[in-house]
Amino acid sequence: MSFFGAASTSNAVGSTPPAEKDIEVADPPGDSISSVAFSPQADYLAVGSWDNNVRIYEVGQSGQTQGKAMYGHQGPVLSVCWNKDGTKILSGGADNAGRMFDVTTGQSQQVAQHDAPIKVVKWIESPQGGVLVTGSWDKTLKYWDLRQSAPVSTVQLPERCYTLDVAYPLMVVGTAERHIQIFNLTSPTSAFKTMVSPLKWQTRVVACFPASNGFAVGSVEGRVAIQYVDDKDTSNNFSFKCHRRDQSATTKDQSLVYAVNDISFHPVHGTFSTCGSDGTINYWDKDARTRLKSFEPTPGPIPSTTFNRTGTIFAYAVSYDWSKGHSGMTPGHVNKLFLHACKDDEVKRKPQKR
Predict the structure, then answer these.
(1) In sequence order, what DSSP letters do the residues of 39-52 get, joined into one string?
(2) Of 47, 224, 277, 349, which one has the fewest beta carbons inside 10 Å?
(3) pTM of the prediction?
(4) How confident is the model at residue 323 (pLDDT cuts 50, 70, 90)?
């Protein structure tokens, strides 16, 4: 088990805080951050990075952080998640491998393999037990029982997997060419419904509602769609613009358009966050169709966000998100992690108007 910065606690945010009193995590990765995930059992944060490593931080009661462990892939890490009991961290990377880190022993091992990079890993907790699902650019999904070396089953996707999310029994997969596949995990080997994204541009992220009755889709064109699974609920489907800016202070044209990089649902209230390449975060209430909070812009794009299990801490990364390709990777990009203490009025739903 490799410890890093074990003695250091988190720094207070510097003179230009990205948001009021948000706490900066000490010893962040040295390269772009791809994925962040809180343990479902305690305030431990797993962070995947393009520097090929996964780091685990412990978050104290007053927000101070401590690096607890680190393990590696042989290529950039693209996705991290935890199992249900919080004893294992799962990760997927550009080395085509899925790895598992055992928190109790400090050991990591390979548990999944694809023919191309693994873009997403998610844990599925079903009545029959826990399973890892991996989505890859090799156009497959694979389900893994961690006690076996071969996948339990493989599902062919219409295109490369860009994003997937699970709120059992619902799983939603977004691929290249704007395909969206909806799975009922009681029969996980074939899609229950296949559709084209309601958004006109490339899918960046899908996130399932905690109630498992629908999902949100974010695209590269500064737009989010709210989509219900049941046909009877389609009247509640809608989309909205976000993560856009005016060309100048005098023109209110919203012509600068940025990618929506991540969507995180609050585990208690069912409200959600969006973050983007414009370096901003918003909290939204889909039922009242209203914005609850806007964060002050940060000094770089925001690639990934997550709430802790109680919804009291919101973690977000600030680092280059590759939205402008290799040419956008200029010197001086920040790589930082921040923790925001959530206030009730930011994340609670608005009362419905009568």
Answers:
(1) -SSSSEEEEEETTS
(2) 349
(3) 0.92
(4) confident
